Amino acid sequence: MDMEGLWYRVLKARQGEEGGQLKEGGRESSLWWRMLCGVCEGAGLGVGRWFDSNSRRVVGNGRNASFWFDRWVGDVPLRDKFPRLFDLAVDKEALVVDMATRGWGEGGNAWRWRRQLLAWEEESVRECVATKCV
Fold it and tell me: Would residue 60 count as lying in a domain?
């Protein structure tokens, strides 16, 4: 999705944005918007996650993919796969392109933390890099 495009900016102004994604909005949102957001959950189909199971994400240049919030690698966002690292991350809103540009390999500048990592937390970073999550 073109996050600088007019349609996205209109939806962002109307619904709000959280974690680099448009908010569902809850009861104060229109029925149309709630139903559209429900597509991702398989609403009304009797099968959960229908949309996600039948579509795929193309990261492309990484300018429209959130490093921590989007499911751009595997079935879950990295914030859920590595919750401790997400909690300690300085830049929770980083895009994939930001992390790649800074260098996300072991010892890269993309990894910025609120404090020095403990040994087991550093192991999580190595696991993330080794499993090709980045």
Answer: no
Q: What is the pLDDT along the chain (134 residues), one digit of tens a residue?
A: 567 778 778 878 877 877 777 777 667 777 777 777 766 555 555 555 556 566 666 677 888 888 999 887 777 888 998 899 999 999 999 998 998 899 887 677 888 899 998 988 888 888 877 765 55
What does the block give as tokens for 113?
């933390």
| Residue appearing with tokens 């809850």 | 26
Domain assignment of residue 61, yes or no? no
Domain range spanning residue 101? 78-130
- Reported pTM: 0.58
Q: Is residue 31 in some structural domain?
A: yes
The H or E element containing residue 101 is helix 96-102
